[in-house]
Design a protein that fits this description.
Keywords: Acyltransferase, Chloroplast, Lipid biosynthesis, Lipid metabolism, Phospholipid biosynthesis, Phospholipid metabolism, Plastid, Transferase, Transit peptide
CATH class of the largest domain: Alpha Beta
Largest sheet: 9 strands, mixed
GO cellular component, one term: chloroplast stroma
GO molecular function, one term: glycerol-3-phosphate O-acyltransferase activity
Distance between the termini: 51 Å
Helix content: 25-40%
Number of domains: 2
Catalytic activity: sn-glycerol 3-phosphate + an acyl-CoA = a 1-acyl-sn-glycero-3-phosphate + CoA
Enzyme class: transferase
Structural class: alpha/beta
Length: 461
Protein backbone atom coordinates (compact mmCIF):
# COMPACT_ATOMS: atom_id res chain seq x y z
CA UNK A 1 0.00 0.00 0.00
CA UNK A 2 1.41 3.42 -0.89
CA UNK A 3 1.82 6.11 1.74
CA UNK A 4 -1.03 8.13 0.28
CA UNK A 5 -3.38 5.18 0.16
CA UNK A 6 -2.46 4.29 3.72
CA UNK A 7 -3.57 7.77 4.67
CA UNK A 8 -6.81 7.57 2.74
CA UNK A 9 -7.72 4.22 4.23
CA UNK A 10 -7.71 5.78 7.67
CA UNK A 11 -10.84 7.75 6.87
CA UNK A 12 -13.50 5.64 5.18
CA UNK A 13 -16.07 8.39 5.56
CA UNK A 14 -14.28 10.80 3.23
CA UNK A 15 -14.32 11.04 -0.53
CA UNK A 16 -10.81 10.97 -1.92
CA UNK A 17 -11.67 10.14 -5.52
CA UNK A 18 -10.06 13.34 -6.71
CA UNK A 19 -6.86 12.53 -4.86
CA UNK A 20 -6.48 8.80 -5.41
CA UNK A 21 -7.23 6.74 -8.49
CA UNK A 22 -7.21 3.47 -6.62
CA UNK A 23 -9.45 4.32 -3.67
CA UNK A 24 -12.92 5.82 -3.98
CA UNK A 25 -14.94 6.29 -0.82
CA UNK A 26 -17.87 8.46 0.14
CA UNK A 27 -18.26 11.08 2.78
CA UNK A 28 -20.83 10.33 5.17
CA UNK A 29 -20.29 10.52 8.59
CA UNK A 30 -20.93 14.01 9.85
CA UNK A 31 -18.60 12.96 12.66
CA UNK A 32 -15.76 13.64 10.25
CA UNK A 33 -16.17 17.25 11.18
CA UNK A 34 -16.03 16.46 14.85
CA UNK A 35 -12.39 15.83 14.19
CA UNK A 36 -11.78 19.36 13.16
CA UNK A 37 -13.47 22.73 13.42
CA UNK A 38 -12.06 25.32 10.64
CA UNK A 39 -11.10 27.13 7.30
CA UNK A 40 -13.08 28.12 4.29
CA UNK A 41 -12.33 27.59 0.64
CA UNK A 42 -14.19 30.67 -0.50
CA UNK A 43 -12.01 33.65 -1.28
CA UNK A 44 -13.57 36.40 0.75
CA UNK A 45 -12.85 38.49 3.81
CA UNK A 46 -14.46 35.83 5.98
CA UNK A 47 -12.68 32.81 4.56
CA UNK A 48 -9.95 30.96 6.37
CA UNK A 49 -8.07 29.56 3.39
CA UNK A 50 -6.59 31.02 0.23
CA UNK A 51 -4.49 34.00 1.15
CA UNK A 52 -2.32 35.89 -1.28
CA UNK A 53 -0.77 39.07 0.05
CA UNK A 54 1.92 41.41 -1.16
CA UNK A 55 3.29 43.88 1.35
CA UNK A 56 4.11 47.19 -0.25
CA UNK A 57 6.06 48.81 2.55
CA UNK A 58 7.99 47.86 5.69
CA UNK A 59 5.97 47.15 8.82
CA UNK A 60 6.06 50.18 11.07
CA UNK A 61 7.51 49.98 14.55
CA UNK A 62 4.83 49.90 17.22
CA UNK A 63 5.13 49.84 20.98
CA UNK A 64 2.66 50.28 23.77
CA UNK A 65 3.06 53.15 26.19
CA UNK A 66 2.12 50.84 29.04
CA UNK A 67 4.47 49.06 31.41
CA UNK A 68 4.06 45.91 29.33
CA UNK A 69 4.94 47.57 26.05
CA UNK A 70 7.26 44.76 25.05
CA UNK A 71 4.24 42.54 24.64
CA UNK A 72 2.93 44.64 21.80
CA UNK A 73 6.09 45.56 19.93
CA UNK A 74 6.30 45.06 16.18
CA UNK A 75 9.79 44.78 14.75
CA UNK A 76 10.65 46.60 11.53
CA UNK A 77 11.24 44.49 8.44
CA UNK A 78 13.39 45.64 5.54
CA UNK A 79 12.48 42.80 3.22
CA UNK A 80 8.91 43.28 2.05
CA UNK A 81 8.58 39.67 0.98
CA UNK A 82 9.22 38.51 4.53
CA UNK A 83 6.16 40.41 5.74
CA UNK A 84 3.53 38.80 3.58
CA UNK A 85 3.02 35.83 5.89
CA UNK A 86 2.30 38.12 8.83
CA UNK A 87 0.29 41.11 7.71
CA UNK A 88 -1.81 42.06 4.69
CA UNK A 89 -0.68 45.01 2.60
CA UNK A 90 -2.98 47.52 4.32
CA UNK A 91 -1.78 46.54 7.78
CA UNK A 92 1.15 48.96 7.86
CA UNK A 93 -1.20 51.88 7.28
CA UNK A 94 -3.63 50.88 10.03
CA UNK A 95 -0.82 50.15 12.50
CA UNK A 96 0.04 53.85 12.50
CA UNK A 97 -3.41 54.92 13.70
CA UNK A 98 -2.47 54.25 17.34
CA UNK A 99 -6.12 54.58 18.37
CA UNK A 100 -5.88 52.04 21.18
CA UNK A 101 -2.16 51.72 21.87
CA UNK A 102 -1.90 55.42 22.73
CA UNK A 103 -4.74 55.28 25.27
CA UNK A 104 -3.53 56.40 28.70
CA UNK A 105 -6.62 55.40 30.68
CA UNK A 106 -9.99 53.68 30.49
CA UNK A 107 -11.80 56.75 29.24
CA UNK A 108 -9.45 57.16 26.28
CA UNK A 109 -9.67 53.44 25.46
CA UNK A 110 -13.47 53.38 25.39
CA UNK A 111 -13.57 56.69 23.53
CA UNK A 112 -11.31 55.12 20.88
CA UNK A 113 -13.94 52.44 20.26
CA UNK A 114 -16.68 55.02 19.78
CA UNK A 115 -14.42 57.17 17.58
CA UNK A 116 -13.73 54.30 15.18
CA UNK A 117 -17.45 53.50 14.99
CA UNK A 118 -18.23 57.10 14.11
CA UNK A 119 -15.48 57.02 11.48
CA UNK A 120 -17.13 53.98 9.92
CA UNK A 121 -14.05 51.79 10.39
CA UNK A 122 -15.50 49.60 13.14
CA UNK A 123 -18.89 47.79 12.93
CA UNK A 124 -21.18 48.71 15.86
CA UNK A 125 -21.69 45.01 16.71
CA UNK A 126 -17.95 44.43 17.04
CA UNK A 127 -17.56 47.67 18.99
CA UNK A 128 -20.23 46.57 21.45
CA UNK A 129 -18.39 43.27 21.93
CA UNK A 130 -15.10 45.08 22.49
CA UNK A 131 -16.59 47.34 25.15
CA UNK A 132 -18.32 44.45 26.91
CA UNK A 133 -15.11 42.42 26.80
CA UNK A 134 -13.17 45.29 28.36
CA UNK A 135 -15.59 45.63 31.26
CA UNK A 136 -15.72 41.89 31.95
CA UNK A 137 -11.94 41.50 31.71
CA UNK A 138 -11.44 44.42 34.07
CA UNK A 139 -13.82 42.91 36.61
CA UNK A 140 -12.07 39.53 36.43
CA UNK A 141 -8.54 40.89 36.80
CA UNK A 142 -9.57 43.03 39.77
CA UNK A 143 -10.91 39.86 41.43
CA UNK A 144 -7.31 38.65 41.66
CA UNK A 145 -6.39 41.35 44.16
CA UNK A 146 -3.34 42.31 42.12
CA UNK A 147 -2.27 45.82 43.26
CA UNK A 148 -1.31 46.61 39.66
CA UNK A 149 -4.58 45.32 38.20
CA UNK A 150 -5.45 48.66 36.60
CA UNK A 151 -2.11 48.73 34.73
CA UNK A 152 -2.54 45.12 33.64
CA UNK A 153 -6.05 45.74 32.32
CA UNK A 154 -5.06 48.86 30.39
CA UNK A 155 -1.97 47.21 28.89
CA UNK A 156 -3.62 43.93 27.89
CA UNK A 157 -6.89 45.42 26.67
CA UNK A 158 -5.25 48.19 24.65
CA UNK A 159 -3.18 45.51 22.95
CA UNK A 160 -6.19 43.27 22.30
CA UNK A 161 -8.42 46.07 21.01
CA UNK A 162 -5.62 47.12 18.68
CA UNK A 163 -5.30 43.56 17.32
CA UNK A 164 -9.09 43.25 16.90
CA UNK A 165 -9.26 46.57 15.10
CA UNK A 166 -6.41 45.71 12.77
CA UNK A 167 -8.06 42.43 11.85
CA UNK A 168 -11.42 44.08 11.23
CA UNK A 169 -9.81 46.56 8.84
CA UNK A 170 -7.82 43.83 7.07
CA UNK A 171 -8.84 40.27 8.11
CA UNK A 172 -6.22 37.60 8.68
CA UNK A 173 -6.89 34.42 6.73
CA UNK A 174 -5.96 31.05 8.21
CA UNK A 175 -4.40 28.26 6.19
CA UNK A 176 -5.46 24.61 6.82
CA UNK A 177 -2.24 24.20 8.81
CA UNK A 178 -1.59 27.47 10.59
CA UNK A 179 1.71 28.10 12.34
CA UNK A 180 1.72 30.45 15.30
CA UNK A 181 2.79 33.97 14.39
CA UNK A 182 5.66 34.89 16.69
CA UNK A 183 7.10 37.83 14.76
CA UNK A 184 7.17 40.64 13.95
CA UNK A 185 4.39 40.64 16.58
CA UNK A 186 4.45 37.74 19.06
CA UNK A 187 0.80 36.64 19.14
CA UNK A 188 1.66 33.61 21.30
CA UNK A 189 3.12 35.62 24.18
CA UNK A 190 0.36 38.18 23.78
CA UNK A 191 -2.22 35.45 24.41
CA UNK A 192 -0.26 34.03 27.33
CA UNK A 193 0.01 37.40 29.03
CA UNK A 194 -3.63 38.22 28.43
CA UNK A 195 -4.97 35.03 30.06
CA UNK A 196 -2.30 34.80 32.80
CA UNK A 197 -4.00 37.36 35.15
CA UNK A 198 -7.19 35.25 35.05
CA UNK A 199 -5.53 32.11 36.45
CA UNK A 200 -5.55 31.66 40.23
CA UNK A 201 -2.30 29.73 40.51
CA UNK A 202 -2.82 29.13 44.22
CA UNK A 203 -5.84 27.02 43.33
CA UNK A 204 -4.55 25.45 40.10
CA UNK A 205 -3.03 21.99 39.62
CA UNK A 206 -1.36 19.71 37.10
CA UNK A 207 -1.97 15.97 37.23
CA UNK A 208 0.75 13.40 36.45
CA UNK A 209 3.66 15.69 35.66
CA UNK A 210 5.84 12.60 35.14
CA UNK A 211 3.68 11.62 32.15
CA UNK A 212 4.03 15.07 30.61
CA UNK A 213 7.81 14.65 30.93
CA UNK A 214 7.47 11.22 29.29
CA UNK A 215 5.57 12.83 26.41
CA UNK A 216 8.26 15.46 25.90
CA UNK A 217 10.95 12.77 25.80
CA UNK A 218 9.04 10.80 23.15
CA UNK A 219 8.58 13.92 21.05
CA UNK A 220 12.32 14.54 21.09
CA UNK A 221 12.83 10.95 19.92
CA UNK A 222 10.72 11.65 16.82
CA UNK A 223 7.46 10.08 18.04
CA UNK A 224 4.02 11.57 17.42
CA UNK A 225 1.69 12.25 20.34
CA UNK A 226 -2.09 12.75 20.20
CA UNK A 227 -3.81 14.29 23.21
CA UNK A 228 -7.50 13.29 23.28
CA UNK A 229 -9.07 15.93 25.46
CA UNK A 230 -12.28 17.46 26.67
CA UNK A 231 -12.76 21.11 25.64
CA UNK A 232 -14.16 23.83 27.87
CA UNK A 233 -13.34 27.36 26.76
CA UNK A 234 -11.69 29.52 24.14
CA UNK A 235 -8.89 29.92 26.69
CA UNK A 236 -8.01 26.19 26.75
CA UNK A 237 -4.80 26.54 24.71
CA UNK A 238 -3.51 29.38 26.87
CA UNK A 239 -4.38 27.56 30.11
CA UNK A 240 -2.60 24.40 28.94
CA UNK A 241 0.52 26.41 28.05
CA UNK A 242 0.42 28.52 31.22
CA UNK A 243 0.27 25.50 33.51
CA UNK A 244 3.19 23.80 31.72
CA UNK A 245 5.40 26.68 30.58
CA UNK A 246 7.74 26.81 33.57
CA UNK A 247 8.74 23.12 33.53
CA UNK A 248 7.91 22.08 29.97
CA UNK A 249 8.17 25.10 27.69
CA UNK A 250 8.77 22.84 24.67
CA UNK A 251 5.31 21.30 25.02
CA UNK A 252 3.71 24.64 25.88
CA UNK A 253 4.94 26.30 22.71
CA UNK A 254 4.82 23.41 20.25
CA UNK A 255 1.33 22.03 20.74
CA UNK A 256 -0.82 21.97 17.60
CA UNK A 257 -4.55 22.32 18.19
CA UNK A 258 -7.36 21.01 16.01
CA UNK A 259 -9.41 24.21 15.90
CA UNK A 260 -12.97 24.93 14.86
CA UNK A 261 -14.18 27.67 12.58
CA UNK A 262 -15.68 29.62 15.47
CA UNK A 263 -12.29 30.66 16.87
CA UNK A 264 -11.08 31.53 13.37
CA UNK A 265 -13.92 33.87 12.45
CA UNK A 266 -15.01 35.59 15.67
CA UNK A 267 -13.19 38.96 15.67
CA UNK A 268 -12.79 38.95 19.45
CA UNK A 269 -11.14 35.53 19.38
CA UNK A 270 -9.00 35.63 16.24
CA UNK A 271 -5.97 37.42 17.76
CA UNK A 272 -5.53 34.55 20.21
CA UNK A 273 -5.95 31.92 17.50
CA UNK A 274 -3.25 33.56 15.37
CA UNK A 275 -0.79 32.84 18.19
CA UNK A 276 -1.39 29.06 18.17
CA UNK A 277 -0.34 26.21 15.91
CA UNK A 278 -3.60 25.00 14.37
CA UNK A 279 -5.13 22.41 12.12
CA UNK A 280 -8.25 24.21 10.98
CA UNK A 281 -11.56 22.40 10.51
CA UNK A 282 -15.31 22.82 10.56
CA UNK A 283 -17.04 21.59 13.68
CA UNK A 284 -19.61 18.81 13.57
CA UNK A 285 -21.93 20.98 15.65
CA UNK A 286 -22.01 23.67 12.95
CA UNK A 287 -21.57 21.56 9.82
CA UNK A 288 -25.26 21.77 8.89
CA UNK A 289 -25.91 25.40 9.86
CA UNK A 290 -26.00 26.51 6.21
CA UNK A 291 -27.03 23.76 3.73
CA UNK A 292 -25.37 25.60 0.84
CA UNK A 293 -21.97 25.40 2.56
CA UNK A 294 -22.02 21.74 3.63
CA UNK A 295 -20.09 20.41 0.64
CA UNK A 296 -17.53 23.23 0.84
CA UNK A 297 -16.99 22.51 4.52
CA UNK A 298 -16.49 18.81 3.87
CA UNK A 299 -13.91 19.54 1.18
CA UNK A 300 -12.16 21.96 3.52
CA UNK A 301 -12.01 19.32 6.24
CA UNK A 302 -10.63 16.77 3.78
CA UNK A 303 -7.88 19.23 2.92
CA UNK A 304 -7.12 19.74 6.60
CA UNK A 305 -6.91 15.99 7.14
CA UNK A 306 -4.36 15.74 4.37
CA UNK A 307 -2.35 18.53 5.97
CA UNK A 308 -2.40 16.68 9.28
CA UNK A 309 -1.31 13.43 7.64
CA UNK A 310 1.65 15.20 6.04
CA UNK A 311 2.51 16.79 9.37
CA UNK A 312 2.47 13.48 11.21
CA UNK A 313 4.70 11.85 8.63
CA UNK A 314 7.45 14.28 9.64
CA UNK A 315 7.36 13.00 13.25
CA UNK A 316 7.78 14.82 16.60
CA UNK A 317 4.24 16.23 16.40
CA UNK A 318 2.09 16.95 19.45
CA UNK A 319 -1.57 17.36 18.49
CA UNK A 320 -4.51 18.23 20.74
CA UNK A 321 -8.02 17.26 19.67
CA UNK A 322 -11.44 17.31 21.33
CA UNK A 323 -13.34 14.25 19.99
CA UNK A 324 -16.59 15.66 21.37
CA UNK A 325 -16.57 18.23 18.56
CA UNK A 326 -17.18 21.18 20.86
CA UNK A 327 -17.07 22.63 24.35
CA UNK A 328 -18.34 20.98 27.51
CA UNK A 329 -21.52 22.37 28.99
CA UNK A 330 -23.27 21.82 32.32
CA UNK A 331 -25.80 19.05 32.71
CA UNK A 332 -29.20 20.79 32.46
CA UNK A 333 -30.63 18.55 35.18
CA UNK A 334 -28.11 19.34 37.93
CA UNK A 335 -25.84 22.10 36.61
CA UNK A 336 -22.73 19.93 36.98
CA UNK A 337 -19.96 20.29 34.42
CA UNK A 338 -18.70 17.03 32.95
CA UNK A 339 -16.62 16.21 29.85
CA UNK A 340 -18.90 15.99 26.81
CA UNK A 341 -19.18 12.46 25.32
CA UNK A 342 -16.55 11.56 22.73
CA UNK A 343 -17.52 10.68 19.17
CA UNK A 344 -16.39 7.08 18.58
CA UNK A 345 -15.57 7.62 14.92
CA UNK A 346 -13.53 10.73 15.59
CA UNK A 347 -11.45 8.87 18.17
CA UNK A 348 -10.92 5.92 15.84
CA UNK A 349 -10.13 8.07 12.81
CA UNK A 350 -7.51 10.00 14.73
CA UNK A 351 -5.97 6.84 16.13
CA UNK A 352 -5.76 5.24 12.70
CA UNK A 353 -4.28 8.38 11.21
CA UNK A 354 -1.43 8.43 13.71
CA UNK A 355 -0.91 4.66 13.40
CA UNK A 356 -0.46 5.00 9.61
CA UNK A 357 1.76 8.07 9.76
CA UNK A 358 5.08 6.20 9.82
CA UNK A 359 6.85 7.36 13.00
CA UNK A 360 5.78 5.71 16.28
CA UNK A 361 2.54 7.24 17.57
CA UNK A 362 0.86 7.38 20.96
CA UNK A 363 -2.57 8.46 22.23
CA UNK A 364 -2.84 10.00 25.70
CA UNK A 365 -6.09 11.08 27.42
CA UNK A 366 -6.02 14.68 28.65
CA UNK A 367 -8.41 16.43 31.03
CA UNK A 368 -8.76 20.17 31.43
CA UNK A 369 -10.86 22.14 33.91
CA UNK A 370 -11.07 25.87 33.27
CA UNK A 371 -14.71 26.64 32.44
CA UNK A 372 -14.97 29.19 35.27
CA UNK A 373 -12.54 31.52 33.50
CA UNK A 374 -14.56 31.91 30.31
CA UNK A 375 -17.69 29.71 30.25
CA UNK A 376 -19.36 29.13 26.88
CA UNK A 377 -23.05 29.93 26.28
CA UNK A 378 -25.38 27.42 27.91
CA UNK A 379 -26.38 26.09 24.50
CA UNK A 380 -24.77 25.87 21.07
CA UNK A 381 -25.31 29.10 19.12
CA UNK A 382 -25.29 29.44 15.34
CA UNK A 383 -24.35 33.10 15.20
CA UNK A 384 -20.82 34.39 15.72
CA UNK A 385 -20.43 36.92 18.54
CA UNK A 386 -21.23 35.21 21.83
CA UNK A 387 -21.23 37.10 25.11
CA UNK A 388 -17.91 36.77 26.98
CA UNK A 389 -18.22 36.14 30.70
CA UNK A 390 -14.78 36.24 32.35
CA UNK A 391 -13.64 35.34 35.87
CA UNK A 392 -10.49 34.89 37.95
CA UNK A 393 -10.37 31.24 38.99
CA UNK A 394 -8.32 28.12 39.59
CA UNK A 395 -7.67 25.79 36.67
CA UNK A 396 -6.50 22.22 36.20
CA UNK A 397 -4.77 19.99 33.67
CA UNK A 398 -4.01 16.29 33.82
CA UNK A 399 -2.76 13.58 31.47
CA UNK A 400 -3.36 9.85 31.85
CA UNK A 401 -1.26 6.86 30.75
CA UNK A 402 -1.17 6.05 27.04
CA UNK A 403 -4.23 4.11 25.83
CA UNK A 404 -2.98 1.24 23.64
CA UNK A 405 -5.50 -0.06 21.12
CA UNK A 406 -4.36 -3.70 21.05
CA UNK A 407 -4.49 -4.00 24.83
CA UNK A 408 -7.82 -2.21 25.21
CA UNK A 409 -9.63 -4.17 22.52
CA UNK A 410 -8.15 -7.67 22.90
CA UNK A 411 -11.46 -9.21 23.93
CA UNK A 412 -13.60 -7.47 21.29
CA UNK A 413 -15.35 -9.70 18.72
CA UNK A 414 -15.73 -7.16 15.91
CA UNK A 415 -14.08 -3.99 14.58
CA UNK A 416 -17.08 -1.91 15.62
CA UNK A 417 -16.95 -3.23 19.18
CA UNK A 418 -13.23 -2.50 19.23
CA UNK A 419 -13.78 1.12 18.17
CA UNK A 420 -16.40 1.57 20.87
CA UNK A 421 -14.24 -0.02 23.54
CA UNK A 422 -11.25 2.11 22.69
CA UNK A 423 -13.20 5.36 22.60
CA UNK A 424 -14.83 4.46 25.90
CA UNK A 425 -11.46 3.74 27.52
CA UNK A 426 -10.10 7.13 26.45
CA UNK A 427 -13.21 8.95 27.69
CA UNK A 428 -13.25 7.11 31.03
CA UNK A 429 -9.67 8.18 31.70
CA UNK A 430 -10.45 11.80 30.86
CA UNK A 431 -13.51 11.71 33.10
CA UNK A 432 -11.59 10.16 36.02
CA UNK A 433 -8.90 12.79 35.78
CA UNK A 434 -11.46 15.55 35.49
CA UNK A 435 -13.15 14.45 38.71
CA UNK A 436 -9.83 14.62 40.56
CA UNK A 437 -9.24 18.15 39.26
CA UNK A 438 -12.78 19.13 40.25
CA UNK A 439 -12.20 17.79 43.75
CA UNK A 440 -8.96 19.72 44.06
CA UNK A 441 -10.28 23.01 42.69
CA UNK A 442 -14.00 23.22 43.36
CA UNK A 443 -14.06 21.18 46.55
CA UNK A 444 -10.90 22.97 47.75
CA UNK A 445 -9.08 19.72 48.57
CA UNK A 446 -5.96 20.88 46.79
CA UNK A 447 -3.08 18.43 46.53
CA UNK A 448 -4.90 16.08 48.89
CA UNK A 449 -7.30 15.26 46.06
CA UNK A 450 -4.54 13.18 44.46
CA UNK A 451 -5.28 9.49 43.86
CA UNK A 452 -3.18 6.49 42.87
CA UNK A 453 -3.99 7.33 39.24
CA UNK A 454 -3.63 11.12 39.36
CA UNK A 455 -0.78 12.75 41.24
CA UNK A 456 -1.35 16.50 41.53
CA UNK A 457 1.37 19.14 41.72
CA UNK A 458 1.98 22.85 41.14
CA UNK A 459 5.07 22.87 38.92
CA UNK A 460 5.32 26.68 38.91
CA UNK A 461 6.21 26.65 42.64
Amino acid sequence: MTASNAYFSCFPFCSFSSLSKTKTMSILSPSFSTLFPTPTLRVSSSSFYSRSVTASSPVLAVSSSSSSSSLFSIKGEDNASSQKDYFPAKMSATVSSRTFLDAQNEQELLYGIRKEVEAGSLPPSVAAGMEELYKNYKSAVFQSGDPKADETVLSNMSGLLDRIFLDVTDPFVFQPHHKAKREPFDYYMFGQNYIRPLVDYRNSYVGNMSLFIEIEEKLKQGHNIILMSNHQTEADPAVISLLLEKRLSYIAENLTYVAGDRVLTDPLCKPFSIGRNLICVYSKKHMLDDPELIEMKRKANTRSLKEMAMLLRSGSQLIWIAPSGGRDRPDPTNGEWVPAPFDTYSVDNMRRLVDHSGPPGHVYPLAILCHDIMPPPMKVEKEIGEKRIISFHGTGLSVGPEIIFSETTAACKSPEKAKEAYSKAVYISVNEQYNVLKSAIHSKKGLEASTHKVSLSQPWN
